[in-house]
Amino acid sequence: MTTAAARPAVAVTGIGMVTPAGIGREITWQRVLSGTPTAAPDPALADTPIPLSCRVPDYDPRAHRPRRVPQRLDPFAQFALTAAREAVADARLDCGTWPSARVAVVIGNCSGGLTSYETQHRKLDGAHARVSPLLLPLFLANMVAAQLSIELNAAGPSLVTATACASGTTALGTALQLLRSGTCDIAVAGGTEAMITPLTVTSLAAAGALTANPDPVTASRPFDTRRDGFVMGEGAAVLVLERAEHARARGREGYALLAGYGASCDAHDPVTPHPYGDGAARAVQAALADAGATHDEVDHVNAHATSTPLGDLAEGRLLHRLFPARTAVTSVKGTLGHLIGAAGAVEAACTALSVHRQTVPPTAGLHTPDPALGVRPVTGAARSLPIGLALSNSFGFGGQNAVVAFRPVHSIREEGPDSP
């Protein structure tokens, strides 16, 4: 078996984000640091049981897609393309000159182009000629990776991972494995989602997954005693991953090292997590083993923590059981809501930034931590602390779990400043 020390290190050299906080990595990071929720009344959901959402604000696709007709791209693809362009520019890479056959694209997604599907379905009603001939390219989930590959001149593996709310994290783990195997030199990886529709919201509300709290400030409240469900969000995050040696050869070190990945399935229930997080614990343990680390080394966990009663309880028990009391726990869903298939990628990006800046954001909306969970997450204000190892947890319907581990870039260097 190849040991963690013998495997090539993989660096995060670029980050791009489109989230309910706004368009751009720094805008999102600063909003998450502030602990200010983004939930707001949503006119499109006025006739649904839960008229709140966390939408990407003021998104004009023409401003971000000047060379492509926006109508040919569903919002889930638009978000991913915008985030990918920022990530590649941040990594200081040139799509026109890079070795395209050595560049992979791996994107996590849950629902595909659901907005386009519902829009076109409403056009049926006996008027078949009105249905767009582009419907399949608009809503097929694989098209987001295909569109990124076309846009970025990336001719290596082009994949979409679908593990429900763990999809974005699964994409990062898959990209990590491609890089370690030597299949590619660069991977553009992350997650995207745009499924805030009346049909989806009504269904999730009927299932009891969404909050019934009408107050946008406290609607999403991970780990709180009064949590009662999540707020739907949308957006994308894309990370550029490279073997650290490849990045250093071109003068780039990055934000953090993607040091480990673990995945598992609860094999328990289609929608309810294992009550003690046994499957999730296996994913955590696999990620730590992959990173060559132990539980005691974990300084920070960006928790999945959706604000549902059972989900937070299972994860809280897991965190209490596995990690030392000093481990700083947070959930960015209090600020951004639940971005479903994009959640893991957004949270992994925030975790990489936490490692780079040695800062843990607060959990917005959390006022009274639930004592039954056994953990006391960071609240109120961001916390500065040394972070040598951080985890980002993602757990999805079907009991599908994915966890990624990050270390500082200086952990593979003897000296020198840590700069992206």
What report would you give on this structure?
The protein has 420 residues and is α/β, with parallel strands linked by helices. It is built from 13 helices and 15 strands. The protein has helices spanning 25-34, 61-64, 75-90, 114-122, 135-139, 143-152, 167-181, 198-206, 244-249, 278-290, 309-322, 333-336, 343-357; strands at residues 10-19, 22-23, 40-41, 52-53, 103-108, 158-161, 186-193, 235-243, 256-265, 300-302, 328-330, 359-360, 383-384, 390-396, 400-407.
Largest sheet geometry: 11 strands, mixed
The structure class reads: alpha/beta
Q: What's the end-to-end separation, in Å?
A: 32 Å
Name the average pLDDT.
Answer: 93
Count of DSSP strands? 15
Features of this protein?
420 residues; alpha/beta; eleven-stranded mixed sheet; two-stranded antiparallel ribbon; 15 strands; 31% helix; disordered C terminus
Topology:
Blueprint: E1 10-19, E2 22-23, H1 25-34, E3 40-41, E4 52-53, H2 61-64, H3 75-90, E5 103-108, H4 114-122, H5 135-139, H6 143-152, E6 158-161, H7 167-181, E7 186-193, H8 198-206, E8 235-243, H9 244-249, E9 256-265, H10 278-290, E10 300-302, H11 309-322, E11 328-330, H12 333-336, H13 343-357, E12 359-360, E13 383-384, E14 390-396, E15 400-407
Parallel strand pairs: 5-6, 5-7, 10-11, 10-14
Antiparallel strand pairs: 1-2, 1-8, 1-9, 3-4, 7-8, 9-15, 12-13, 14-15
Helix pairs in contact: 3-6, 7-13
Compact summary:
This protein is an alpha/beta fold. It has 13 helices and 15 strands.
